[in-house]
Design brief:
Strand content of chain A: 15-25%
Largest interface: A-C, 98 and 98 residues
Distance between the termini of chain B: 32 Å
Helix content of chain B: 40-55%
Number of strands of chain A: 19
Number of strands of chain B: 3
Structural class of chain B: alpha+beta
Largest sheet of chain A: 9 strands, mixed
Shape of chain A: globular
Order of helices and strands of chain B: HEEEHHHH
Radius of gyration of chain A: 22 Å
Largest sheet of chain B: 3 strands, antiparallel
Strand order of the largest sheet of chain B: 1-2-3
Strand order of the largest sheet of chain A: 4-12-11-10-9-5-6-8-7
Oligomer: heterotetramer
Bound molecules: pyridoxal-5'-phosphate, FE2/S2 (inorganic) cluster
Helix content of chain A: 25-40%
Shape of chain B: globular
Chain lengths: 421, 116, 421, 116
């Protein structure tokens, strides 16, 4: 059962006061808070089981190994994979994208090849491919976003933006497309990408590989990699109640098998001689050095927690709150992105007329409200809204309607502060 | 950090805002991460800033800082302006959050470039 | 004051029983246990301050940012750097080495250039350079280790080992040497490398850069990067009472400034447009994506803890225990490495005649003793000892003479189990 | 996991250890991470393993597994040997720690290769 008040009891930080007000944490698209179940899992790991994994014969090492491998299994199941060897632990979504770039991209992207991204990618899923293309003499093709903040699958005019041509996905795809790297949900606008349509079009028109940035989708929606028909999915633990410093690259086994290692070192190795080395099998081939054991265990606990709520319920809660917020904020601020709440995750992006987003955020902080402001590591899409900076309130499982009401109330205060005389 | 009356006042009604005819110095600076920008124009004569005006900027803090700093340096010797550092901004504006320091330092660095 | 019994009180895991015996944790070269001060720092971070860093205006984000940057400062001071921007947070020592390889190595190592490593490098500091050399057509030159397990600085004959020529450092260095990558303390044998001599010789004979693997030295010895005269130092937090998933690359500012970024993404970026991007300044240029905030804070707490003990005292304790252990084990097992305890950190590597190291480890585990066995991610040096696997007991601040006595006692039991009838 | 009497006995006094004259099958396997190696020799005739011997190996577990497995397969039909999997080793040896599974599977995979 999804009872927000009960859920809130699990999150110690929600008891904090900020500037004399109870914390209203609405910066969940940046990072989420941790339930005591996750914190306790980490503490239990360190207090009772900590040891280096995979190589030790002794009891602690066996316990630690089975705990982290059990976490891997849980995470596989959570995203709908029935092969836990497809789960590669990394630090965060950014590293996962870089892993694919260095391992698969370096080998498979050549001069004249094309990589397709959207205009609303997070910098991690934009700059990484920019750099690869620059290095290889490949071409980055950018898919435009429509007025509702949705990826433009087909139709519309090609236009120039920031000195680069942007266009529909249909226009961007071609015989030279080797990779399509697209976010499932925009972190700036919250818009949900029409992945089914996208995947179908890519598969029909090209032989390109597909990488999905699930940083904002995996935390809030039921994910079924088995049904998505894509090649890689990346996401970060810290955005789904998990610890910092742990993220996941999921890939289809066949493609992971073909990819050369990325980082070299202990654990990713079979036999080592001075003159040559052999790689370990999946997933360890991609996990060099001592892993973030406590992070893996903590992410396993986060997944348990989310599953106890039920991912369908989590999504329902997001939808409810975003619908409510969109309704409430109407007329009080300029709101960006999809007007239809069903097309967006729990993210509301806005500006108060004539007031800089950073000033809005700072005055709200004075009332205990934590929102984000600025470019949200998505500078191009913010600029395409005609803005230099935007304010973003984003909800998660522990947020309430009352917090939305409180935010809206305080927006009025912000306007008062900066009202011209 | 709360915005003081004085900051709000300078942000709403910035002093020395606009073009400056006959300016012989010009300097523009921007903050990469927020995209905000400020441009100063000054009349410098005999080693002294005789007049100064600015345009641009984005947030309340950078606007207020530009406003207050321009008031402060008007009439100052160029040599003295060169000596100004972050401390002078904090003196003028009160305590500033670390995350916002870049806002208030933007006009300062533009003014220093003006006389650099 | 260094009082082991009081120190032990700080480590919750030391209260554990394993197979009915109190835990004797002697696998510290693999990873160390965590004092409650470190665990509490992590819990406090999550329960009271957690937020994404660097970009947020709100209070939690400011608190989190100042906590992680404060940790960076502490760590800089701890290793004798007065410029905290020289501290790059990574996952572990392995990633730090890979960062240097991908960023500096890719740019500066070309065909025919030479990279010098020792025969007793950890796989992370061997395979990484093997791969770079293979890719670039460069040559990996391997410095031999003498009968005492010490790096052979000069003298001795060149010999062939595993199909590769191994030689003294003096013989290995030449006009084409671009990089010398050497461990400060061997994780297999515990031998301390004569770094002063090595650095002097490299600087006199070549213009090569020097990378020091401090994974085993930083946890136990006072480190003064300001005086070492090297270019990079790498180490892992989990081997010095810190959390998993956090490690450090230290580099001289000038060299870090020149190095291109390694991983791309949020935070490491200044301005981003669709067509081009600019890099952030140090250290963030090398820290893409949301960092392991709790890991940084926890490592800061670990450094506080070590400094409260005093690194000179920590080293004295290591020396005392290793001297005691070497004395005690004499005649009871074959011991590898330096006979003089002053040349080694708290590591004793041994085998019982005719008994496989894994069997030794497993029987000892039956008595609650945790040691490591196998190749310790250092296959070449183990093979050069004429062994396929060795057993390793390694101590840290919380270990006692009584635990050494207990280990030695139980070695006798191991021999009994496998004694031929 | 504790070593049972039987494991210790088989490790100390391995059965079927040594060369086998007139062997018509041979198979060698090694474990990359510990470097241990086992080599089996067998006389196969009429689809039946008439005799089998082995050399090499390293640790007590792999030695015991080689010893016990060789005893077990001696006289077995090749077809039956092909069906053997990890379960048979656990049946023979009792519970094995996950970290040591590779030890006991080494002889099994060598024997399967022998009749593969
Ligand atoms: C000397 C040495 N170098 C490098 C490493 C690699 O450290 P990590 O596994 O934390 O990356 C280790 C740890 O095993 C080590 O002992
Ligand atoms: C859509 C999207 N992609 C990628 C990232 C990068 O995640 P991380 O910073 O955890 O690497 C984020 C997080 O800000 C995101 O929202
Ligand atoms: S937010 Fe851009 S200068 Fe203040
Ligand atoms: S340790 Fe090598 S086979 Fe058992």
């Amino acid at each position: 059962m999804f009872e927000v008040e009960k859920i809130r009891e699990d999150f110690p930080i929600l008891k904090r006061e900020i500037n004399g007000y109870p914390l209203a944490y609405l910066d969940n698209a940046a990072t989420t808070q941790k339930p005591k179940q996750v914190i306790e899992a980490i503490v239990d790991y360190y207090e009772n089981h900590n040891a280096n994994v995979h190589r030790g014969i002794h009891t602690l090492s066996e316990e630690a190994t089975s705990m982290v491998e059990n976490a891997r299994l849980k995470i596989a199941r959570f995203i709908g994979s029935n092969d836990e060897k497809e789960i590669i632990f990394v630090r965060n979504a950014s590293e996962a994208i870089n892993l694919v770039m260095y391992s698969w991209g370096e080998k498979n992207i050549g001069k004249g090849d094309e990589v397709v991204v959207s205009l609303m990618e997070h910098h991690s899923n934009l700059v990484t491919w920019q750099m690869l293309c620059q290095k290889k003499g490949a071409v980055l093709r950018v898919v435009d976003v429509d007025g509702e903040g949705e990826i433009r699958v087909s139709g519309g005019e090609m236009r120039e933006f920031q000195g680069v041509r942007v266009m529909s996905l249909e226009q961007a795809l071609g015989a030279k497309t080797k990779l399509v790297a697209i976010t499932a949900v925009s972190n700036v606008l919250g818009t949900v990408s029409p992945l089914e349509k996208i995947v179908k079009m890519v598969r029909t028109k090209t032989k390109a590989k597909i990488l999905i940035d699930g940083s904002q989708s995996v935390p809030v929606m039921k994910t079924e990699v088995g049904k998505m028909g894509v090649d890689w999915l990346v996401f970060s633990g810290h955005k789904m109640l998990g610890p910092t410093g742990i993220g996941v690259l999921w890939g289809r086994r066949e493609i992971l098998e073909e990819m050369p290692p990325f980082l070299y070192g202990g654990d990713m190795i079979g036999q080592v001689e001075l003159g040559k080395s052999e790689w370990n099998e999946l997933p360890w081939k991609f996990e060099a050095g001592t892993p973030n054991m406590a992070g893996m265990v903590g992410l396993g606990a986060a997944v348990d927690y989310l599953e106890s709520l039920g991912m369908n319920e989590v999504w329902k809660h997001e939808q409810e709150l975003v619908a409510y917020a969109l309704e409430k904020i109407k007329g009080k601020a300029e709101v960006y992105g999809a007007g239809d709440y069903r097309k967006r995750a729990g993210v509301v992006t806005f500006n108060l007329p004539g007031i800089h987003a950073h000033d809005t955020a700072q005055v709200l902080d004075g009332f205990g409200i934590a929102i984000r402001s600025g470019q949200h590591c998505g500078a191009p899409v913010v600029e395409s809204l005609g803005e230099m900076a935007v304010a973003r309130a984003s909800v998660y499982v522990y947020n309430t309607r009352a917090e939305i009401d409180y935010l809206i109330d305080k927006l009025v205060e912000v306007k008062k502060v900066f009202r011209k005389r | 950090m709360e915005y003081s009356e004085e900051i709000i006042d300078n942000a709403r009604n910035p002093r020395n805002f606009g073009d400056l005819k006959g300016a012989n110095k010009r300097s523009k600076q921007s903050n990469a991460t927020c995209g905000d920008m400020v441009e100063f124009y000054a009349k410098v004569d005999g080693g002294v800033i005789r007049d100064i005006r600015f345009k641009g900027v984005g947030c309340a803090l950078s606007t207020a800082a530009a406003s207050m700093l321009s008031d402060k340096v008007k009439g100052m010797k160029v040599d003295e302006v060169r000596e100004l550092d972050g401390k002078v901004v904090v003196e003028l504006m009160g305590e500033v959050n670390p995350a916002r320091m870049k806002c208030v330092l933007l006009p300062l660095s533009a003014i220093r470039a003006l006389v650099g």
